[in-house]
Amino acid sequence: MAIETGRRVRTISHRSNWKAGIGGGVAGGIVMGALMLVMNEAVIAVAIPSLYFLAPPATVPVGMAVHVFHGAVLGLAFAGLAGVLGVDSIGNVVGLGLVWGVVIWVVLAGLLMPVWLSAVGSPASPPVPNFAPPSLLWHAVYGLVLGGVYGVLGDGPYSSH
């Protein structure tokens, strides 16, 4: 005797484009890094490379490389979030990018990074928490660029594809 059961499977489809997330993250990291160089070079030359024992001495190219890599990884995470949330317009994806940048500023730059820099003995250790206004600007710009590039390169209904 065979028993057959009917089974309903609910499929949830979330669209995200990991390549657009990485591309947006790289673009945002480059623009943010350029702002950091103009406004406070020591952050990119000493603090960022110090996270991985790569400074001192100060080294802008290494700091930029590490920073852009961080931007790419965070852009990939953003792509996943945008897909899960089902962001459906260019305005919403750019707005989500801005929120993402501010969240990164609070959690990573404001709380985690100062603790990490202190733990590795960096000469660029800021106080905990480190909610510096210029850093908020840099992270907001990162998020806006990330969201804009993701919106243009992505495959959502809001993209140019």
Automatic annotation (TrEMBL):
<feature type="transmembrane region" description="Helical">
    <location>
        <begin position="136"/>
        <end position="153"/>
    </location>
</feature>
<dbReference type="InterPro" id="IPR046739">
    <property type="entry name" value="DUF6789"/>
</dbReference>
<feature type="transmembrane region" description="Helical">
    <location>
        <begin position="68"/>
        <end position="87"/>
    </location>
</feature>
<feature type="transmembrane region" description="Helical">
    <location>
        <begin position="21"/>
        <end position="48"/>
    </location>
</feature>
<feature type="transmembrane region" description="Helical">
    <location>
        <begin position="94"/>
        <end position="116"/>
    </location>
</feature>
<protein>
    <recommendedName>
        <fullName>Histidine kinase</fullName>
    </recommendedName>
</protein>
<keyword id="KW-0812">Transmembrane</keyword>
<dbReference type="Pfam" id="PF20587">
    <property type="entry name" value="DUF6789"/>
</dbReference>
<keyword id="KW-1133">Transmembrane helix</keyword>
<keyword id="KW-0472">Membrane</keyword>
